[in-house]
Structure formats: structure tokens, C-alpha cells
Prior knowledge:
Layout: H1 6-12, E1 19-22, E2 26-30, E3 38-44, H2 59-76, E4 81-84, E5 100-104
Antiparallel strand pairs: 1-2, 2-3, 3-5, 4-5
The structure holds adenosine monophosphate.
Adenosine monophosphate binds near residues 17 and 33.
Amino acid sequence: MPDNCLFCKIIRGEIPASKLYEDDDVLAFRDIAPQAPVHILVIPKKHLSGPVAVTEEDERVVGKLMRVGNEIARKEGIPHYRLVFNNGAQAGQTVFHLHMHILGGRHMAWPPG
Ligand code: AMP
């Protein structure tokens, strides 16, 4: 786990977060700057810099992000939601540890900005 990665620090408990779910593979917590009434991040515990870093050996855990996300969305009472992975700064990625955004609780426009 890289020492200076923000999300690795959250996984290690060095930075507080509003955690919703955790197991050996993944962690889910509320986004600190929510862009919708519900805005949650689901991350693998393994450090991957982003979607581009995912390899075959990560397929199970990356699939689990979505399964856990679906369960969280159900518990949050948002049957309609958007799942977002940003890859690279121009696509809006600011934290270089793979994360899936769950956004819901309001109408979502398309295309995204
Ligand atoms: P991205 O722009 O796709 O890299 O998403 C990074 C997300 O991490 C943003 O939505 C930030 O608001 C969120 N974020 C940054 N720092 C924290 C933190 N300490 N706790 C929770 N969410 C954070």
C-alpha cells in the first residue's frame, strides 16, 4: 500500500471516513464533497492507480465493487443511480486509487459534463 495514497490512508484508518461497508477486498464510504444526495465511493483494498491499472487478476474484486455498490444503493433507497469510474485527470480523476462512484437521489443528466 503506497504511503502517500489518500485512499490507502483511509483503508489503514489513518484518515477518518464515513464507512458504510468493509470486507477483506473492498471498502465503501461517503464522498467528502457529495455531488448528489447520495454519493458513495467503493474502492478495492488493493492499491490500483485507476481503471487503466486493472488486470486479469483483479477481475473478481472489480466485479465485487459493483455487487457491493448495488447492495449499498438498495440500502440507501436509491433504485436509480449512476456508477462512475474516472480514468485520468482529463476525465476528472483526482485520486489515483481506483474507486467507483455511486451517485443517486436526483435526476442525472446525460451526457455528463
Ligand atoms: P475522482 O475525481 O473520480 O478521482 O474522485 C475522487 C473523489 O474522492 C472526489 O469525489 C472527492 O470528493 C473524494 N474525496 C477526496 N478526499 C476524500 C476523503 N478524505 N474522504 C472521502 N472522499 C474524498
